[in-house]
Design a protein that fits this description.
This protein is α+β, with helices and mostly antiparallel strands and 354 residues long. The chain contains eight helices and 25 strands. The protein folds into two domains: 133 residues, 3-Layer(bba) Sandwich (YerB-like fold); 145 residues, YerB-like (YerB-like fold, 3-Layer(bba) Sandwich). The strands form five sheets. Strands 3, 4, 5, 7, 8, 11, 17, 20, 21, 22, 23 and 24 form a twelve-stranded mixed β-sheet that branches. The longest helix has 10 residues. The radius of gyration is 21 Å and the shape is globular. It holds the Pfam family DUF3048. This is DUF3048 domain-containing protein.
Amino acid sequence: MFNKWMAASAVALLLVSGCSKNDEITGESEDEVIEVPEEAVSDGETEEKELPFQFPLTGVGTEDQADGRAIAVMINNDPKARPQSGLEKADIVYELLAEGNITRFLAIFQSEQPETVGPVRSARDYFIELAKGYDSLYIAHGYSPEAKAMLDKGYIDNLNGITYDGTLFKRASFRKAPHNSYISFENILKGADKRDYQMDEAPSALTFLNKSEVDEVDGEIASSAMVSYFNSNLFNSIYEYDEDLGKYKRYTNGELTADYDSGDPVLLDNIFIVETDHKIIDDEGRRSIDLTSGGQAYLLQKGKWKEVEWENIDGKILPVLNGKNVGLVPGRTWINVIPSNPGLEQTVSFEVKE
């Protein structure tokens, strides 16, 4: 199926045909007879233990209170920067255009912390706004003039490679600048301590579906979806739903999005695609992107897609329908922000497995 996407991508852009790992519970028979209270018997079905807490940005259960500040990292998506490190552990990834029709990622971490993340790239004002919505510590290496002005004014707590190149940020030998700046989470926490940033408070929780609601997710069937930026295979995003895993795998330019070090794939539970106005603001091709007005969107969950709307709620881009928040499937979320011209219908296409 994936090869079919690549061969037909130019045509598919013009058509919309709507047609962390799970714990395994195993049991072994024993000679010893164990009496089981009648109320514990559930017609042969094993009930999953309900954990007392949830991570705020994934809705995944946890034994302990999910403390810890969100950390938002600018990650390079130039083909020379792939595969990246750390993306598979991000709770939420935003993908937006930078200049030159190249997309860039803002990876937000709270429930898990990779050992190393990168390559780290430069800040843009609209990425700063998104990071601010989660009260994140913002990590970047470099900045646009608009972003620098915001950072200089202390708009958001941040660590920047311009200041800490060679100390907190390290240059990898296997890549060339500007695609070789990396930072470890150990150094992020060292930098936060150095700057006296408070790192204990977790972000406010998103809205998640419960188990029965997940089982009843509705929409049009689509085993694959493609988001293409300016008809470029280099920066398309193809999401294929793996029925066995119950999650989406992501591909770009024919390659599985996976971790550079471990090879573990990025596995996603929610794909949220929103359209909004983009404007070129200077000779370098930098953009102004409207992240406040709301608009049309597609939401993909459990191998289905449906039309919704997006709103900016307290700085977060979230799905709504008929004025109400749409719950997310517990797990990881990827958010593609695309220009309203050409818009969703010309940029996004779906396919149903034959």
